[in-house]
Specification:
This protein is mostly beta strands. Helix content is about 0%, strand content about 35%.
Length: about 575
Protein backbone atom coordinates (compact mmCIF):
# COMPACT_ATOMS: atom_id res chain seq x y z
CA UNK A 1 0.00 0.00 0.00
CA UNK A 2 1.03 3.61 -0.44
CA UNK A 3 2.20 5.35 2.68
CA UNK A 4 0.60 8.59 3.89
CA UNK A 5 3.69 10.66 4.59
CA UNK A 6 3.62 14.44 4.26
CA UNK A 7 6.71 16.48 5.14
CA UNK A 8 7.24 20.24 5.17
CA UNK A 9 10.75 21.58 4.84
CA UNK A 10 12.45 25.01 4.94
CA UNK A 11 15.91 25.59 3.50
CA UNK A 12 17.75 28.86 4.29
CA UNK A 13 20.34 29.92 1.76
CA UNK A 14 21.69 33.06 0.13
CA UNK A 15 20.49 32.49 -3.42
CA UNK A 16 22.06 33.79 -6.57
CA UNK A 17 19.40 33.89 -9.27
CA UNK A 18 19.85 33.89 -13.00
CA UNK A 19 16.43 34.66 -14.34
CA UNK A 20 15.34 32.16 -16.99
CA UNK A 21 13.43 33.71 -19.85
CA UNK A 22 10.23 32.65 -21.55
CA UNK A 23 10.57 33.18 -25.28
CA UNK A 24 7.40 33.17 -27.33
CA UNK A 25 7.15 31.94 -30.93
CA UNK A 26 6.23 33.64 -33.21
CA UNK A 27 6.03 36.80 -31.00
CA UNK A 28 9.74 37.08 -30.14
CA UNK A 29 11.13 34.92 -32.97
CA UNK A 30 9.30 33.84 -36.07
CA UNK A 31 10.60 30.25 -35.97
CA UNK A 32 11.28 27.69 -33.26
CA UNK A 33 14.86 27.20 -34.47
CA UNK A 34 15.58 30.92 -34.29
CA UNK A 35 14.30 30.92 -30.71
CA UNK A 36 16.53 27.94 -29.82
CA UNK A 37 19.59 29.66 -31.30
CA UNK A 38 18.87 32.85 -29.36
CA UNK A 39 17.99 31.13 -26.06
CA UNK A 40 20.20 30.72 -23.03
CA UNK A 41 20.36 27.51 -20.97
CA UNK A 42 17.34 27.22 -18.71
CA UNK A 43 15.03 29.23 -20.94
CA UNK A 44 11.58 28.06 -21.99
CA UNK A 45 10.43 28.45 -25.56
CA UNK A 46 6.64 28.70 -25.61
CA UNK A 47 5.13 28.05 -29.03
CA UNK A 48 1.76 29.48 -29.94
CA UNK A 49 -0.77 27.32 -31.87
CA UNK A 50 -0.14 26.84 -35.57
CA UNK A 51 1.88 24.82 -38.07
CA UNK A 52 5.63 25.41 -38.22
CA UNK A 53 7.47 24.04 -41.26
CA UNK A 54 10.81 23.37 -39.62
CA UNK A 55 13.50 20.81 -38.82
CA UNK A 56 14.85 21.82 -35.44
CA UNK A 57 18.03 20.96 -33.53
CA UNK A 58 18.45 21.67 -29.82
CA UNK A 59 22.13 22.61 -30.36
CA UNK A 60 23.15 20.97 -27.08
CA UNK A 61 21.16 23.45 -25.00
CA UNK A 62 19.22 22.81 -21.80
CA UNK A 63 15.90 24.23 -22.94
CA UNK A 64 12.23 23.44 -22.61
CA UNK A 65 10.42 23.73 -25.92
CA UNK A 66 6.70 23.36 -25.38
CA UNK A 67 3.42 24.27 -26.98
CA UNK A 68 1.03 26.71 -25.40
CA UNK A 69 -2.13 24.76 -26.22
CA UNK A 70 -1.07 21.16 -26.75
CA UNK A 71 -0.17 18.78 -29.53
CA UNK A 72 -3.43 18.90 -31.43
CA UNK A 73 -3.08 22.66 -31.91
CA UNK A 74 0.65 22.95 -32.52
CA UNK A 75 2.38 21.13 -35.40
CA UNK A 76 6.03 20.90 -36.38
CA UNK A 77 6.06 19.75 -40.01
CA UNK A 78 9.41 18.55 -41.33
CA UNK A 79 8.45 18.23 -44.99
CA UNK A 80 10.51 21.23 -46.13
CA UNK A 81 13.97 20.21 -44.92
CA UNK A 82 16.64 22.28 -46.74
CA UNK A 83 19.00 19.28 -46.83
CA UNK A 84 17.37 15.93 -47.74
CA UNK A 85 20.00 14.06 -45.70
CA UNK A 86 18.81 15.81 -42.52
CA UNK A 87 15.06 15.35 -42.66
CA UNK A 88 14.30 14.47 -39.04
CA UNK A 89 11.77 16.88 -37.58
CA UNK A 90 13.58 17.18 -34.21
CA UNK A 91 17.25 16.33 -33.59
CA UNK A 92 19.28 15.86 -30.44
CA UNK A 93 22.89 15.36 -31.54
CA UNK A 94 25.02 17.23 -29.01
CA UNK A 95 24.79 15.21 -25.78
CA UNK A 96 21.70 17.00 -24.53
CA UNK A 97 20.59 15.89 -21.06
CA UNK A 98 17.30 15.52 -19.23
CA UNK A 99 17.02 19.30 -18.93
CA UNK A 100 16.41 19.42 -22.68
CA UNK A 101 12.67 18.88 -23.06
CA UNK A 102 10.24 18.84 -25.96
CA UNK A 103 6.57 18.49 -25.12
CA UNK A 104 3.13 19.10 -26.50
CA UNK A 105 3.62 19.01 -30.29
CA UNK A 106 2.44 17.06 -33.29
CA UNK A 107 5.70 16.01 -34.96
CA UNK A 108 5.07 14.95 -38.53
CA UNK A 109 6.27 14.55 -42.13
CA UNK A 110 9.90 13.91 -41.24
CA UNK A 111 12.02 11.81 -43.60
CA UNK A 112 14.93 10.94 -41.32
CA UNK A 113 18.66 11.61 -41.10
CA UNK A 114 21.06 9.62 -43.28
CA UNK A 115 23.28 7.20 -41.33
CA UNK A 116 26.37 5.79 -43.03
CA UNK A 117 26.68 2.82 -40.67
CA UNK A 118 23.15 1.58 -41.29
CA UNK A 119 22.99 2.89 -44.87
CA UNK A 120 19.48 4.06 -44.08
CA UNK A 121 17.57 7.11 -43.00
CA UNK A 122 16.98 7.19 -39.24
CA UNK A 123 14.51 8.92 -36.96
CA UNK A 124 11.80 10.33 -39.15
CA UNK A 125 10.17 12.19 -36.28
CA UNK A 126 12.95 12.48 -33.69
CA UNK A 127 16.66 11.65 -34.03
CA UNK A 128 18.78 11.11 -30.87
CA UNK A 129 22.47 10.27 -30.96
CA UNK A 130 25.86 11.04 -29.39
CA UNK A 131 24.82 10.39 -25.79
CA UNK A 132 21.76 12.63 -25.92
CA UNK A 133 19.20 11.99 -23.19
CA UNK A 134 16.36 14.51 -23.56
CA UNK A 135 12.80 14.24 -22.29
CA UNK A 136 10.26 13.65 -25.07
CA UNK A 137 6.83 13.98 -23.52
CA UNK A 138 3.15 14.39 -24.43
CA UNK A 139 3.70 14.62 -28.18
CA UNK A 140 1.88 13.11 -31.15
CA UNK A 141 4.57 11.63 -33.42
CA UNK A 142 2.87 10.59 -36.63
CA UNK A 143 3.09 10.20 -40.41
CA UNK A 144 6.88 10.30 -40.59
CA UNK A 145 8.37 8.30 -43.47
CA UNK A 146 10.78 8.39 -46.41
CA UNK A 147 9.16 8.21 -49.81
CA UNK A 148 11.77 5.91 -51.41
CA UNK A 149 14.30 4.68 -48.84
CA UNK A 150 14.16 2.46 -45.76
CA UNK A 151 13.87 4.18 -42.43
CA UNK A 152 14.95 2.99 -38.99
CA UNK A 153 12.78 4.42 -36.23
CA UNK A 154 10.01 6.01 -38.21
CA UNK A 155 8.86 7.79 -35.07
CA UNK A 156 12.02 7.96 -32.93
CA UNK A 157 15.61 6.73 -33.44
CA UNK A 158 18.24 6.52 -30.70
CA UNK A 159 21.78 5.13 -30.85
CA UNK A 160 25.33 5.80 -29.70
CA UNK A 161 24.52 5.83 -25.96
CA UNK A 162 21.51 8.09 -26.38
CA UNK A 163 19.13 7.52 -23.47
CA UNK A 164 16.04 9.70 -23.98
CA UNK A 165 13.00 9.56 -21.72
CA UNK A 166 10.07 8.89 -24.07
CA UNK A 167 6.98 9.43 -21.94
CA UNK A 168 3.24 9.65 -22.64
CA UNK A 169 3.46 10.20 -26.38
CA UNK A 170 1.18 8.87 -29.10
CA UNK A 171 3.43 7.31 -31.75
CA UNK A 172 1.41 6.19 -34.76
CA UNK A 173 1.22 5.76 -38.54
CA UNK A 174 4.96 6.10 -39.12
CA UNK A 175 6.13 3.93 -42.02
CA UNK A 176 8.79 3.06 -44.60
CA UNK A 177 8.63 1.71 -48.15
CA UNK A 178 10.43 -1.53 -47.23
CA UNK A 179 13.41 -2.92 -45.36
CA UNK A 180 13.12 -0.74 -42.26
CA UNK A 181 12.84 -1.59 -38.59
CA UNK A 182 11.24 -0.05 -35.52
CA UNK A 183 8.21 1.64 -37.00
CA UNK A 184 7.51 3.48 -33.76
CA UNK A 185 10.91 3.46 -32.02
CA UNK A 186 14.33 2.05 -32.96
CA UNK A 187 17.09 1.80 -30.34
CA UNK A 188 20.64 0.50 -30.81
CA UNK A 189 23.45 0.63 -28.24
CA UNK A 190 21.29 2.86 -26.06
CA UNK A 191 19.10 2.72 -22.97
CA UNK A 192 15.98 4.83 -23.49
CA UNK A 193 13.11 4.91 -21.00
CA UNK A 194 9.95 4.18 -23.03
CA UNK A 195 7.06 4.66 -20.64
CA UNK A 196 3.30 5.07 -20.84
CA UNK A 197 3.14 5.67 -24.59
CA UNK A 198 0.37 4.70 -27.00
CA UNK A 199 2.28 3.09 -29.89
CA UNK A 200 0.01 1.94 -32.70
CA UNK A 201 -0.48 1.45 -36.44
CA UNK A 202 3.14 1.89 -37.47
CA UNK A 203 4.34 0.01 -40.56
CA UNK A 204 7.73 -1.58 -41.23
CA UNK A 205 9.40 -4.94 -41.98
CA UNK A 206 10.17 -5.84 -38.35
CA UNK A 207 9.39 -4.34 -34.96
CA UNK A 208 6.22 -2.50 -35.82
CA UNK A 209 6.14 -0.88 -32.39
CA UNK A 210 9.73 -1.03 -31.11
CA UNK A 211 13.06 -2.51 -32.21
CA UNK A 212 15.88 -3.08 -29.71
CA UNK A 213 19.14 -4.28 -31.23
CA UNK A 214 22.91 -4.48 -30.77
CA UNK A 215 23.21 -4.02 -27.02
CA UNK A 216 20.15 -1.86 -26.41
CA UNK A 217 18.94 -2.00 -22.80
CA UNK A 218 15.71 -0.04 -23.07
CA UNK A 219 13.21 0.17 -20.20
CA UNK A 220 9.85 -0.49 -21.88
CA UNK A 221 7.26 0.14 -19.18
CA UNK A 222 3.47 0.41 -19.17
CA UNK A 223 2.90 1.12 -22.87
CA UNK A 224 0.06 0.10 -25.16
CA UNK A 225 1.63 -1.44 -28.30
CA UNK A 226 -1.06 -2.37 -30.76
CA UNK A 227 -2.29 -2.86 -34.31
CA UNK A 228 0.98 -3.29 -36.19
CA UNK A 229 1.29 -5.41 -39.34
CA UNK A 230 4.80 -6.57 -40.27
CA UNK A 231 6.74 -9.37 -41.92
CA UNK A 232 8.10 -10.46 -38.51
CA UNK A 233 8.03 -9.09 -34.95
CA UNK A 234 4.71 -7.31 -34.89
CA UNK A 235 4.96 -5.52 -31.53
CA UNK A 236 8.61 -5.64 -30.38
CA UNK A 237 11.73 -6.94 -32.16
CA UNK A 238 14.60 -7.90 -29.85
CA UNK A 239 17.92 -8.84 -31.48
CA UNK A 240 21.14 -9.19 -29.45
CA UNK A 241 19.68 -6.86 -26.84
CA UNK A 242 18.53 -6.87 -23.24
CA UNK A 243 15.50 -4.62 -22.78
CA UNK A 244 13.32 -4.68 -19.66
CA UNK A 245 9.71 -5.14 -20.80
CA UNK A 246 7.27 -4.69 -17.92
CA UNK A 247 3.58 -3.93 -17.57
CA UNK A 248 2.73 -3.41 -21.24
CA UNK A 249 -0.42 -4.29 -23.15
CA UNK A 250 0.72 -5.86 -26.45
CA UNK A 251 -2.35 -6.56 -28.56
CA UNK A 252 -3.70 -6.94 -32.10
CA UNK A 253 -0.28 -7.09 -33.74
CA UNK A 254 0.31 -9.48 -36.66
CA UNK A 255 3.00 -10.83 -38.96
CA UNK A 256 2.83 -12.55 -42.33
CA UNK A 257 1.68 -16.19 -42.33
CA UNK A 258 5.28 -17.42 -41.98
CA UNK A 259 6.39 -14.63 -39.64
CA UNK A 260 7.66 -14.99 -36.08
CA UNK A 261 6.60 -13.17 -32.94
CA UNK A 262 3.29 -11.39 -33.22
CA UNK A 263 3.79 -9.73 -29.84
CA UNK A 264 7.55 -10.02 -29.24
CA UNK A 265 10.30 -11.71 -31.26
CA UNK A 266 13.38 -12.52 -29.16
CA UNK A 267 16.45 -13.93 -30.91
CA UNK A 268 20.23 -14.16 -31.30
CA UNK A 269 21.42 -14.19 -27.70
CA UNK A 270 19.04 -11.56 -26.40
CA UNK A 271 18.41 -11.47 -22.66
CA UNK A 272 15.31 -9.39 -22.08
CA UNK A 273 13.23 -9.31 -18.93
CA UNK A 274 9.55 -9.93 -19.81
CA UNK A 275 7.23 -9.45 -16.82
CA UNK A 276 3.68 -8.40 -15.97
CA UNK A 277 2.60 -7.93 -19.61
CA UNK A 278 -0.69 -8.79 -21.31
CA UNK A 279 -0.46 -10.41 -24.76
CA UNK A 280 -3.87 -10.53 -26.44
CA UNK A 281 -5.21 -11.00 -29.99
CA UNK A 282 -1.77 -11.16 -31.63
CA UNK A 283 -1.31 -13.29 -34.79
CA UNK A 284 1.87 -14.77 -36.28
CA UNK A 285 3.07 -17.80 -38.19
CA UNK A 286 4.63 -19.09 -34.96
CA UNK A 287 4.93 -17.61 -31.52
CA UNK A 288 1.90 -15.35 -31.79
CA UNK A 289 2.48 -14.01 -28.29
CA UNK A 290 6.26 -14.46 -27.96
CA UNK A 291 8.77 -16.18 -30.26
CA UNK A 292 12.08 -17.22 -28.66
CA UNK A 293 15.12 -18.39 -30.62
CA UNK A 294 18.73 -18.84 -29.44
CA UNK A 295 17.97 -16.93 -26.24
CA UNK A 296 17.40 -17.90 -22.61
CA UNK A 297 15.84 -15.53 -20.09
CA UNK A 298 12.88 -15.12 -17.71
CA UNK A 299 9.23 -14.79 -18.73
CA UNK A 300 7.49 -14.11 -15.43
CA UNK A 301 3.90 -13.23 -14.53
CA UNK A 302 2.50 -12.58 -18.02
CA UNK A 303 -0.99 -13.15 -19.40
CA UNK A 304 -1.59 -14.69 -22.86
CA UNK A 305 -5.11 -14.59 -24.28
CA UNK A 306 -6.57 -15.21 -27.75
CA UNK A 307 -3.25 -15.21 -29.61
CA UNK A 308 -3.22 -17.29 -32.82
CA UNK A 309 -0.37 -19.09 -34.62
CA UNK A 310 -1.17 -19.79 -38.26
CA UNK A 311 1.90 -21.48 -39.82
CA UNK A 312 1.53 -25.16 -40.76
CA UNK A 313 3.16 -27.52 -38.22
CA UNK A 314 4.74 -24.79 -36.08
CA UNK A 315 2.23 -23.51 -33.54
CA UNK A 316 2.81 -21.69 -30.30
CA UNK A 317 -0.22 -19.47 -29.99
CA UNK A 318 1.17 -18.23 -26.67
CA UNK A 319 4.91 -18.96 -26.93
CA UNK A 320 7.13 -20.75 -29.46
CA UNK A 321 10.57 -21.86 -28.22
CA UNK A 322 13.47 -22.90 -30.47
CA UNK A 323 17.06 -23.62 -29.35
CA UNK A 324 16.38 -21.84 -26.08
CA UNK A 325 15.83 -22.58 -22.39
CA UNK A 326 13.74 -19.80 -20.85
CA UNK A 327 12.10 -19.84 -17.42
CA UNK A 328 8.32 -19.42 -17.75
CA UNK A 329 6.87 -18.71 -14.32
CA UNK A 330 3.42 -17.65 -13.06
CA UNK A 331 2.03 -17.11 -16.54
CA UNK A 332 -1.54 -17.79 -17.65
CA UNK A 333 -2.36 -19.05 -21.18
CA UNK A 334 -6.06 -19.06 -22.05
CA UNK A 335 -7.87 -19.52 -25.39
CA UNK A 336 -4.75 -19.27 -27.52
CA UNK A 337 -4.72 -21.38 -30.67
CA UNK A 338 -2.56 -22.93 -33.35
CA UNK A 339 -4.31 -23.25 -36.71
CA UNK A 340 -4.03 -25.49 -38.74
CA UNK A 341 -1.09 -27.00 -36.87
CA UNK A 342 -1.34 -29.96 -34.53
CA UNK A 343 1.16 -28.18 -32.27
CA UNK A 344 0.14 -26.49 -29.04
CA UNK A 345 -1.99 -23.41 -28.78
CA UNK A 346 -0.35 -22.63 -25.43
CA UNK A 347 3.40 -23.38 -25.57
CA UNK A 348 5.28 -25.16 -28.35
CA UNK A 349 8.87 -26.32 -27.77
CA UNK A 350 10.83 -27.16 -30.93
CA UNK A 351 14.02 -29.20 -31.14
CA UNK A 352 16.18 -31.23 -28.79
CA UNK A 353 18.33 -28.25 -27.75
CA UNK A 354 15.40 -26.44 -26.12
CA UNK A 355 14.95 -27.07 -22.38
CA UNK A 356 12.48 -24.56 -20.95
CA UNK A 357 11.32 -24.61 -17.34
CA UNK A 358 7.59 -24.01 -16.79
CA UNK A 359 6.43 -23.51 -13.21
CA UNK A 360 3.37 -22.10 -11.39
CA UNK A 361 1.56 -21.51 -14.68
CA UNK A 362 -1.93 -22.13 -16.05
CA UNK A 363 -2.52 -23.52 -19.57
CA UNK A 364 -6.26 -23.90 -20.10
CA UNK A 365 -8.66 -24.00 -23.03
CA UNK A 366 -5.94 -23.56 -25.65
CA UNK A 367 -6.36 -25.41 -28.97
CA UNK A 368 -5.59 -27.96 -30.19
CA UNK A 369 -3.43 -28.74 -27.11
CA UNK A 370 -1.96 -26.91 -24.14
CA UNK A 371 1.72 -27.86 -24.40
CA UNK A 372 3.75 -29.54 -27.13
CA UNK A 373 7.33 -30.80 -27.00
CA UNK A 374 9.02 -33.67 -28.78
CA UNK A 375 10.19 -34.98 -25.39
CA UNK A 376 9.07 -34.44 -21.80
CA UNK A 377 10.13 -31.07 -20.45
CA UNK A 378 10.38 -29.61 -16.96
CA UNK A 379 6.81 -28.56 -16.13
CA UNK A 380 5.90 -28.43 -12.43
CA UNK A 381 3.29 -26.93 -10.09
CA UNK A 382 1.12 -25.95 -13.03
CA UNK A 383 -2.48 -26.43 -14.09
CA UNK A 384 -2.75 -27.97 -17.58
CA UNK A 385 -6.03 -29.03 -19.09
CA UNK A 386 -5.65 -32.73 -19.97
CA UNK A 387 -2.72 -33.07 -17.56
CA UNK A 388 1.05 -33.21 -17.95
CA UNK A 389 3.66 -35.23 -16.02
CA UNK A 390 5.51 -33.30 -13.34
CA UNK A 391 5.67 -32.58 -9.63
CA UNK A 392 2.69 -30.59 -8.34
CA UNK A 393 0.85 -30.45 -11.69
CA UNK A 394 -2.96 -30.54 -11.64
CA UNK A 395 -5.71 -31.11 -14.20
CA UNK A 396 -8.46 -29.13 -12.47
CA UNK A 397 -10.55 -26.17 -13.68
CA UNK A 398 -8.86 -22.96 -12.43
CA UNK A 399 -12.29 -21.38 -11.77
CA UNK A 400 -11.60 -17.97 -13.30
CA UNK A 401 -13.69 -14.97 -12.19
CA UNK A 402 -13.90 -11.32 -13.21
CA UNK A 403 -12.15 -8.72 -11.08
CA UNK A 404 -11.25 -5.01 -11.24
CA UNK A 405 -8.52 -5.37 -13.89
CA UNK A 406 -9.61 -8.40 -15.92
CA UNK A 407 -11.54 -11.64 -16.30
CA UNK A 408 -8.97 -14.14 -15.06
CA UNK A 409 -8.69 -13.73 -11.34
CA UNK A 410 -9.04 -16.90 -9.27
CA UNK A 411 -12.18 -17.76 -7.35
CA UNK A 412 -11.76 -17.29 -3.57
CA UNK A 413 -14.42 -18.05 -0.99
CA UNK A 414 -12.97 -15.22 1.13
CA UNK A 415 -14.02 -12.72 -1.56
CA UNK A 416 -17.59 -13.93 -1.89
CA UNK A 417 -17.27 -16.67 -4.51
CA UNK A 418 -18.83 -20.03 -3.66
CA UNK A 419 -15.68 -22.09 -4.30
CA UNK A 420 -11.93 -21.57 -3.99
CA UNK A 421 -9.85 -22.28 -7.09
CA UNK A 422 -7.55 -25.33 -6.92
CA UNK A 423 -4.80 -22.98 -8.13
CA UNK A 424 -4.88 -21.02 -4.87
CA UNK A 425 -1.88 -21.81 -2.63
CA UNK A 426 -0.77 -24.50 -5.10
CA UNK A 427 2.60 -23.06 -6.16
CA UNK A 428 6.10 -24.19 -5.30
CA UNK A 429 7.05 -21.50 -2.77
CA UNK A 430 5.71 -18.79 -0.50
CA UNK A 431 4.55 -15.74 -2.44
CA UNK A 432 6.83 -13.54 -0.37
CA UNK A 433 9.81 -15.60 -1.61
CA UNK A 434 8.76 -15.56 -5.29
CA UNK A 435 10.54 -12.35 -6.22
CA UNK A 436 12.24 -10.78 -9.19
CA UNK A 437 14.34 -7.70 -9.71
CA UNK A 438 13.11 -4.81 -11.85
CA UNK A 439 14.63 -1.45 -12.64
CA UNK A 440 13.72 0.21 -9.35
CA UNK A 441 13.75 -2.64 -6.88
CA UNK A 442 12.43 -6.10 -6.09
CA UNK A 443 8.86 -7.24 -6.74
CA UNK A 444 7.39 -10.34 -5.09
CA UNK A 445 4.14 -12.12 -5.83
CA UNK A 446 3.06 -10.95 -2.38
CA UNK A 447 2.92 -7.43 -3.91
CA UNK A 448 0.31 -8.68 -6.40
CA UNK A 449 -3.03 -10.50 -6.29
CA UNK A 450 -5.21 -13.20 -7.85
CA UNK A 451 -8.23 -12.12 -5.75
CA UNK A 452 -11.11 -9.91 -6.89
CA UNK A 453 -10.73 -7.75 -3.78
CA UNK A 454 -7.07 -7.10 -4.72
CA UNK A 455 -5.77 -8.41 -1.43
CA UNK A 456 -2.16 -9.51 -1.93
CA UNK A 457 -1.10 -13.13 -2.22
CA UNK A 458 0.06 -13.65 1.36
CA UNK A 459 0.84 -17.35 1.78
CA UNK A 460 1.91 -20.12 -0.62
CA UNK A 461 2.07 -18.63 -4.10
CA UNK A 462 -1.05 -19.07 -6.21
CA UNK A 463 -0.62 -20.63 -9.66
CA UNK A 464 -1.01 -18.33 -12.65
CA UNK A 465 -0.88 -14.64 -13.49
CA UNK A 466 -1.11 -12.14 -10.62
CA UNK A 467 -2.77 -8.75 -11.18
CA UNK A 468 -1.53 -5.45 -9.71
CA UNK A 469 -3.17 -4.30 -6.51
CA UNK A 470 -6.15 -2.11 -7.41
CA UNK A 471 -7.28 -0.77 -4.05
CA UNK A 472 -7.01 2.83 -2.80
CA UNK A 473 -3.45 3.99 -3.33
CA UNK A 474 -3.01 7.35 -1.62
CA UNK A 475 -5.11 10.14 -0.17
CA UNK A 476 -4.01 12.98 2.08
CA UNK A 477 -5.10 16.59 2.59
CA UNK A 478 -2.92 19.68 2.53
CA UNK A 479 -2.95 23.41 1.78
CA UNK A 480 0.67 24.04 2.72
CA UNK A 481 2.86 25.58 0.05
CA UNK A 482 6.19 23.73 0.12
CA UNK A 483 4.72 20.36 0.97
CA UNK A 484 6.68 17.31 -0.08
CA UNK A 485 4.53 14.23 -0.64
CA UNK A 486 6.43 10.98 -0.22
CA UNK A 487 4.84 7.66 -1.04
CA UNK A 488 5.71 4.01 -1.49
CA UNK A 489 4.40 2.05 -4.45
CA UNK A 490 4.71 -1.51 -5.75
CA UNK A 491 8.10 -1.54 -7.39
CA UNK A 492 7.11 -2.44 -10.94
CA UNK A 493 4.31 0.11 -11.26
CA UNK A 494 4.41 3.82 -11.97
CA UNK A 495 2.01 6.47 -10.72
CA UNK A 496 0.92 10.00 -11.41
CA UNK A 497 -0.17 12.31 -8.64
CA UNK A 498 -3.50 14.06 -9.18
CA UNK A 499 -5.10 16.84 -7.17
CA UNK A 500 -8.76 17.75 -6.93
CA UNK A 501 -11.29 19.52 -4.78
CA UNK A 502 -13.14 17.19 -2.43
CA UNK A 503 -16.26 19.24 -3.12
CA UNK A 504 -16.28 17.97 -6.71
CA UNK A 505 -16.58 14.30 -5.81
CA UNK A 506 -19.91 12.75 -6.84
CA UNK A 507 -20.96 9.14 -6.37
CA UNK A 508 -22.51 7.71 -9.51
CA UNK A 509 -24.15 4.33 -9.99
CA UNK A 510 -21.01 2.35 -10.69
CA UNK A 511 -18.11 4.71 -9.97
CA UNK A 512 -16.90 7.69 -7.97
CA UNK A 513 -16.59 10.79 -10.20
CA UNK A 514 -13.62 12.84 -8.99
CA UNK A 515 -14.72 15.85 -11.00
CA UNK A 516 -12.17 18.07 -12.66
CA UNK A 517 -8.71 17.13 -11.37
CA UNK A 518 -5.27 18.54 -12.08
CA UNK A 519 -2.40 16.19 -12.86
CA UNK A 520 1.21 16.29 -11.82
CA UNK A 521 3.35 13.68 -13.49
CA UNK A 522 5.97 11.93 -11.40
CA UNK A 523 7.96 11.18 -14.54
CA UNK A 524 11.11 10.13 -12.70
CA UNK A 525 9.09 7.67 -10.58
CA UNK A 526 11.02 8.73 -7.48
CA UNK A 527 8.02 8.64 -5.18
CA UNK A 528 8.47 12.31 -4.26
CA UNK A 529 6.42 15.24 -5.55
CA UNK A 530 7.24 18.78 -4.43
CA UNK A 531 4.97 21.85 -4.49
CA UNK A 532 2.43 20.02 -6.59
CA UNK A 533 -0.27 22.34 -7.91
CA UNK A 534 -0.96 23.78 -4.50
CA UNK A 535 -3.38 26.72 -4.34
CA UNK A 536 -1.82 29.95 -3.14
CA UNK A 537 -5.05 31.12 -1.53
CA UNK A 538 -7.64 28.36 -1.25
CA UNK A 539 -11.18 29.60 -0.85
CA UNK A 540 -12.72 29.27 2.61
CA UNK A 541 -13.98 25.76 3.16
CA UNK A 542 -12.09 24.23 0.24
CA UNK A 543 -10.43 20.91 0.88
CA UNK A 544 -8.13 19.26 -1.64
CA UNK A 545 -7.17 15.62 -2.05
CA UNK A 546 -4.05 14.08 -3.52
CA UNK A 547 -4.25 10.65 -5.12
CA UNK A 548 -1.68 8.40 -6.75
CA UNK A 549 -3.10 7.08 -9.99
CA UNK A 550 -1.73 3.85 -11.39
CA UNK A 551 -0.32 4.45 -14.83
CA UNK A 552 -1.57 3.44 -18.26
CA UNK A 553 -1.22 -0.32 -17.81
CA UNK A 554 -4.65 -0.33 -16.21
CA UNK A 555 -5.59 3.33 -16.52
CA UNK A 556 -7.13 3.24 -13.05
CA UNK A 557 -7.45 5.67 -10.17
CA UNK A 558 -8.04 2.71 -7.87
CA UNK A 559 -11.15 1.86 -5.89
CA UNK A 560 -12.98 3.85 -3.25
CA UNK A 561 -13.69 2.50 0.22
CA UNK A 562 -17.06 1.34 -1.15
CA UNK A 563 -15.30 -0.79 -3.76
CA UNK A 564 -16.37 1.44 -6.66
CA UNK A 565 -13.96 2.61 -9.34
CA UNK A 566 -12.71 6.19 -9.27
CA UNK A 567 -12.83 8.22 -12.47
CA UNK A 568 -11.98 11.77 -13.39
CA UNK A 569 -14.05 14.06 -15.56
CA UNK A 570 -13.65 13.49 -19.30
CA UNK A 571 -10.36 14.68 -20.83
CA UNK A 572 -8.65 15.18 -17.48
CA UNK A 573 -5.30 13.55 -16.75
CA UNK A 574 -4.39 12.15 -20.19
Amino acid sequence: MVSKIVSVFIVLTVPVFVQAAIIFVPDDHSTIQAAITAAAPGDTIMVRPGTYYENINFEGKALTVESEQGASATIIDGSMAPDPNFGSVVSFTNAEGSDSIIQGFTITNGTGTWNEYWLAFCGGGIFCTNGSSPIIRNNIITMNKHSTESILGGGIFCNDLANPHIIKNEISSNSDPGGGSGGGIFCENSAPLIRSNYIHDNSTIEGGGITCTDGATALILHNIITNHSTYVSGGIHCNSAAPTIIGNTIAYNQTLSWGEGGGINVRDGSQPTIMDNRFTHNTAGKGAGVYIRDSSFDVINNFFYLNTAIAELDGGGGIFIRSSSPLIKNCTFVENSSIPSNRAGGITVWGSTSSPTVVNSILWNNTPTQFYASSTKDVTYSALEGGYPGLGNIDLDPLFVTGPAGDYYLSHMDTGQTTTSPCVDAGNDLAVNACYTVNDGVVCLSDLSTRTDSEPDDSVADIGFHYPLMGPLFITLSHSVGTVITYDRPKSYVYDIIRGNVADIVEENSYIDLGSVACGADDDATGIVEDLLLPENPAPGECFFYLARQDIWSGSYGLSSTGKERRAAESDCP
